[in-house]
Amino acid sequence: MAEAAIRAGCRYYFGYPITPQNELPEYMSKRLPEVGGIFVQAESEIASINMVIGASMAGARVMTSSSSPGISLKQEGISYLGGLELPAVIVNMMRGGPGLGNIAPSQSDYFQATRGGGHGDYRTIVLAPASGQELCDLTYKAFDLADHYRNPVLILADGMMGQMMEPVRFPVLRDVERLPKKPWALTGAKGRKSHFIRSLILDPEQMEEHNWKLMRKYEQIADSEIRYESFKTDDADLVIVAFGTAARIAKAAVKRARGEGLKVGLFRPISLWPYPSKALRDLAKRVKHFFVFELNAGQMIEDVHLALGGEADVFFYGRPGGVVPNPAEISRIVSRQFFQKEIG
Amino acid sequence: MLIKTIFAGFGGQGVLSMGYVLAYAAMVEELQVTYLPAYGAEVRGGTANCTVAISNEEIASPIASAPDNVVVMNNPSLEKFQHQIVTGGVMFVNSNLVEQRPVRGDIILYEIPCNDLAHELGSDQSANMVMLGGFIEKTGLVKLDSIRSAIKDVFKEKKKAKEMNLKALDVGFDYMRKNGGKV
Fold first, then answer.
1. Are both A2-180+197-224 and A229-340 of the same fold?
2. Are A249 and B58 within 8 A, CB to CB?
3. What is the least distance, in Å, from the CA of B110 to any CA of chain A?
């Protein structure tokens, strides 16, 4: 992830240590100085997100990362990034919660990530990788999306993704000088009119107009930036909906269930906001049984319900607290569903 | 094919390095591989383990609830993992530091005196690579040459450690070949 960020042109990283994501700042602390970048271990999460705001305002590609409790601390700054329309990439390697929780893989911050997290009417683009290669590719892509829409992008993964190593093919190293220009950035007003970037808009009508402007942007993102993977859904009688680490396990469960002759598929949202609701709804024209599997007590299931609008039967199975079930556990539940509901 | 191996011992014994080198070697052979370290809040002296999954297909879970192989470098690891290993699975024990033996009769056991062999070589800290050499001789999970090129890459900036690790690897491999190690 760190190398992908640098290859995407990120030259500034500000953060505060927390397990299970310290490998990322550790790598940044070594690698960024080699490419002329700046690494700062700030005194707190709040300081680091404010440093991100500063660097972004000045036009730089900038990143921060943390894990659940640390991301909560950054939320004020993330709301400011949303209101100020500033690009930045934020990584959350989720751990078990609430509170201090533990350091085991969990998906308990789905609500926080997809509903904004901080205060105010704003949205962050949320991407959920499920492999080492995707951690790399989506991080690389996140910087382009952030700049293009002038919006914060959150990469939502978990302790498993944060700790695991897999072979990765890296994308090309971008020339920072040749990245798209940012004519809005605060670069010193000598010889030109001053730029203003602020989120304090006291006049309600003006604030309202700013809000509508943001909403129009979010609509555009919702139209263009949907990402998902479908695996063996074409002939499926039951479709598992899962993201990130849960989706990896679900995929193996699908293969097992297929081995038993059960027609099971997997729908894996990659963009959690915007959520691939339409694709799911289209699937429900034919598939009448959906099984939502999450490493939490049931959060994404709300988006599945919203997408399906009561058109299909939805069953939930979750393991919160950092417990990661094996594929056999999930395929057993799938088999039981087929039996109980007389599917297929 | 999907083979999961757990390497376990004290922090500082190089158990994470063993797993990392194996994972790297699998990558050299263009196999699918995941490496997942696990350690407590402690650093040196605490328990540490890592799981390496190697397959020719996409790997779903990097966690091994029922590993095929377990490499045990200290007593607590033997207690912790002996009941997780699959029937017919293989356990490798560092016979210098592990006094107990597994109670299970349905697994294969190999012993290597890793610390003695490393000491004879003049490099006490290479006990982990002695073990890895023996492990590869018995499992054939990857080629010895792939492990060699992994060590050369992983330790490329530490010339002395690289040379020692390569020697230790051969010592472990040869020991297993000659003595069988089987109990």
1. yes
2. no
3. 28
